[in-house]
Design brief:
The chain is an alpha/beta fold. It has a 7-stranded mixed sheet with strand order 6-5-4-3-2-1-14. Strands 7-8-9-10-11-12-13 form a 7-stranded mixed sheet. 18% of the residues lie in helices and 28% in strands. It is built from 4 helices and 14 strands. The termini are close together. Helix 1 links the parallel strand 4 and strand 5.
Length: 210
């Protein structure tokens, strides 16, 4: 499995059997020219995870790609999409995608909570979207949200320790002036057996599963 980080929450996962792009939002770049995608997965409706206009361009280059979203995001789009909810399991090309999660983390009590799908790919790689999605099994790679209005670093560390993946790859960093400061804290406070690996932007990173 390979992962390419296009900034913030946007990653391309190549399982060897499927090419899946997740969360092509406003703070990400250089994904627009991708081709050969089997699916585009969106965790939730916020603009840093999906921009309808950019999504339209991406789909023109990938007409066969499935667009998979939650029901609230589907209402925001002008194109047809598959809607999924937590508890469902999908087959995308040769990959298995389990839908976890349910709700976005609370930003503030005055701000409505939106739906948030987390996606577990081949039982190995978890993209939690904007939520600390619990898992009931070992995870090889956790895409770890690093900075957001709803997030503080102590909660991110607690989530990292709760999941205890073999490898954590920080994402959701675009709102931070100095993401390396957070990365260093995760490296220092990660549970035993977890390696924190920063994915160079736009470069494929090999993910070795157990």
């Amino acid at each position: 499995m390979q992962l390419t980080h296009y900034g913030h929450a946007c990653v391309l996962v190549d399982t060897g059997a499927a090419r899946i792009l997740l969360d092509p939002g406003a703070f990400s770049s250089d994904f627009e020219g991708l081709t050969g995608l089997d699916a585009i997965l969106v965790t939730h409706q916020h603009f840093d995870h999906v921009v309808p206009e950019r999504l339209d361009d991406l789909r023109r280059g990938n007409p066969a790609a499935r667009l998979i979203v939650d029901s609230q995001t589907a209402e925001q789009l002008s194109v047809d999409a598959e809607t999924v909810t937590p508890g469902e399991t999908l087959t995308v090309a040769g990959a298995t995608v389990e839908v976890l999660g349910g709700d976005h983390a609370v930003i503030h009590p005055d701000i409505p909570v939106v739906r948030n799908n987390a996606y577990l790919i081949d039982g190995s790689l978890l993209h939690p979207g904007d939520s600390y999605t619990p898992v009931d099994r070992p995870v090889d790679t956790l895409l770890l949200p690093t900075g957001a209005p709803w997030l503080k670093v102590s909660e991110a560390v607690d989530y990292l320790r709760a999941v205890a993946p073999r490898q954590a790859v920080p994402i959701h960093e675009a709102v931070l002036a100095n993401p390396a400061l957070h990365y260093g804290m995760f490296e220092a406070l990660a549970p035993a057996g977890t390696a924190v690996t920063v994915a160079p932007r736009g470069e494929a990173l090999d993910l070795k599963s157990t």
